[in-house]
Design a protein that fits this description.
- It is a single chain.
- By secondary structure, the protein is mainly alpha-helical.
- Helix 13 runs antiparallel to helix 21 and helix 15 packs across helix 17.
Length: 574
């Protein structure tokens, strides 16, 4: 039996399909598709479940206020009532999918008030956002425009007030989140006193003086906020970042439409994890009989780009897979798009050990994706440099390059932005089980077409699958109290072979985003299952290029809704 078959059986055995629950019984008031489209128009114009606030300084601060989540929840509750007055029997199939997606997101806005983010999340008040990319990256191929500099000045002007509000509102946050925010604040301050000042030479003369002043004021405010986080803010319990079993299970069921709870996910994860270790053992015996896979991984980690050349390596591998997709006509790549490579911003370096996808900006009608890469930085010690280089090795870089770029997240986002369904084009929900499931599916698809043609790449791809199977175990275990932070770090190190800094970055991110980490494996398996079912139904008429394009054209939907859309596009019952 193949490894892929083992993986599929291990998960799907414990994930029997549950029928999609019908909408809550509410007396229908409107029953036609025109009424639903009118609702969507109002929803998208009115803040998508959040109270619309505008872009003024008072509106900016109102969005950070302690009352903001409760205000958003009240608005979402009103929208939910209106949505449930629409009789879904009168909607098209596509509209019913959108209805279910909207309902799940509105329910989440209401439910998420229990997270108490204004008082528990210190990083919420570090609002410099795109500052680093605008000043240092900007897309990587042109200097900031005058509009960019004006936006930078506005961000710097607002930052001290946001941090002042945080000092008033924060109460007993998880100590880990305080440490992460402290590190981010210091990184921002160092940037403003270093590279930012150098880059000011590129600013227009009319703005340079005010940009220098606001930069100095923001750096001073960051120093003060860092001192507050370190010396004054009383911590909550060490593990108070845990979402808890009830919340975790609710998000799996009601937001992601998955027929499993945390306990079921952990059990499925262990089965898949063991199957993947067996596949690694088999690969090691093919590559070098008698040698454990961990030995081969250790050797692979010693092969890596030189410091400062990691980004170039990602760019080179991305170009290679892009060329393969076009040469073999494996999928349509829409016109007027590009992918640029930029440094990982300071606020993400402790949670993204390798890099990630930073979304799309439109420049001169071209959709420009930002692929951020975590390279060696000057502040690192020699030991940290060595560890980062082992992490960014020749086996992992080719896999991450396609996962984040082509045909992974970047191509996924390009397709999503042209989706004819406004709800999905607007990114409502941005479902991670679709997003990460597709990117992992892309890895295995590219393996099947022969992209990984070196032992390091083959080993790296399979070790990365083990990394993802570990996530299926660790994330629900962390948030339900079955595993401590240190146990999670050790699991990554002992079971997967990650360096400690990479393992910590992983677990740090898991604490802030419950249910996201398992989405890679679970989402991938759902797409593989869907492909098998469509192949079986179509037989010789199955066309893989058509299939992958229909998956992307479905848009950012939970797996069950994505399955419904794709099957209906083939005229198959869901």
């Amino acid at each position: 039996m193949t490894t892929r078959r083992l993986l599929l059986l291990a998960t799907l055995a414990g994930c029997a399909r549950a029928p999609l629950a019908p909408p809550a019984a509410v007396a229908p008031r409107r029953a036609d598709s025109v009424a639903f489209e009118s609702y969507v128009t109002a929803y998208l114009a009115g803040g998508r479940g959040r109270a619309a606030t505008g872009d003024s300084l008072p509106a900016f601060l109102a969005g950070l206020a302690a009352e903001a989540p409760r205000r958003a929840a009240r608005r979402a509750a009103e929208q939910l009532v209106e949505l449930r007055r629409i009789d879904t029997a009168g909607l098209t199939g596509a509209q019913r999918v959108d209805w279910l997606l909207l309902e799940s997101q509105l329910k989440r806005t209401v439910y998420d008030t229990i997270l108490r983010t204004p008082e528990r999340v210190p990083g919420r008040y570090l609002t410099l956002g795109d500052l680093y990319w605008r000043v240092a990256g900007v897309g990587g191929d042109r200097p900031p425009t005058e509009r960019d500099w004006a936006d930078v000045r506005q961000s710097l002007e607002r930052a001290p007030q946001a941090m002042a509000l945080g000092r008033r509102q924060l109460h007993a946050p998880p100590p880990l989140w305080t440490r992460l925010a402290l590190s981010t604040a210091r990184s921002y301050a160092a940037f403003l006193r270093g590279e930012y000042r150098t880059r000011l030479a590129l600013a227009p003369d009319s703005l340079r003086g005010s940009l220098q002043l606001t930069g100095e004021q923001a750096a001073a405010a960051l120093d003060g906020f860092a001192a507050f986080l370190q010396d004054t803010l009383a911590p909550g319990p060490d593990d108070s970042w845990a979402a808890g079993r009830a919340y975790y299970d609710w998000v799996l069921r009601d937001v992601n439409f998955l027929p499993m709870d945390a306990a079921g996910m952990i059990a499925a994860g262990r089965q898949i994890h063991e199957a993947t270790k067996a596949a690694l053992d088999s690969l090691a015996q093919r590559l070098r009989p008698g040698t454990p896979w961990r030995t081969l991984v250790t050797e692979m980690q010693g092969r890596h780009p030189e410091p400062g050349r990691i980004t170039d390596a990602y760019r080179r591998h991305s170009d290679r897979v892009h060329a393969l997709l076009q040469r073999e006509a494996l999928i349509t790549i829409p016109a007027r798009e590009s992918l640029t490579f930029v440094p990982t911003p300071p606020q993400l370096r402790e949670t993204y050990a390798w890099g990630g996808y930073g979304g799309i900006t439109v420049r001169d009608s071209v959709q420009v994706g930002r692929f951020f890469v975590t390279d060696v930085v000057p502040s690192m010690t020699p030991e940290q440099v060595a560890e980062k280089l082992r992490t960014q090795n020749d086996g992992w870089i080719p896999v991450i390059a396609l996962h984040e770029g082509y045909p992974g997240h970047h191509l996924q986002q390009v397709y999503a932005r042209t989706n004819p369904r406004r709800v999905r084009r607007g990114g409502v929900g941005g479902n991670t089980y679709y997003g990460e499931g597709w990117a992992l599916y892309a890895e295995h698809w590219m393996a099947r077409v022969g992209l990984f043609d070196t032992p390091d790449a083959q080993l790296g791809q399979l070790q990365m699958r083990l990394w993802r199977t570990a996530r299926v175990i660790i994330d629900p275990s962390l948030h339900t109290g079955a595993m401590s932070y240190e146990q999670a770090v050790r699991f990554f190190m002992d079971e997967v072979g990650l360096e400690r800094s990479a393992a910590e970055a992983e677990v740090n991110r898991f604490t802030t985003w419950p249910t996201q980490a398992p989405s890679y494996i679970i989402g991938w398996l759902e797409i593989e299952r869907l492909e098998r079912d469509v192949r079986a139904a179509l037989g010789s008429r199955f066309n893989h290029r058509q299939f992958v394009e229909r998956v992307l054209e479905a848009g950012p939907l939970p797996p069950l809704l994505m399955r419904r859309v794709v099957l209906e596009s083939y005229g198959l019952a869901s």
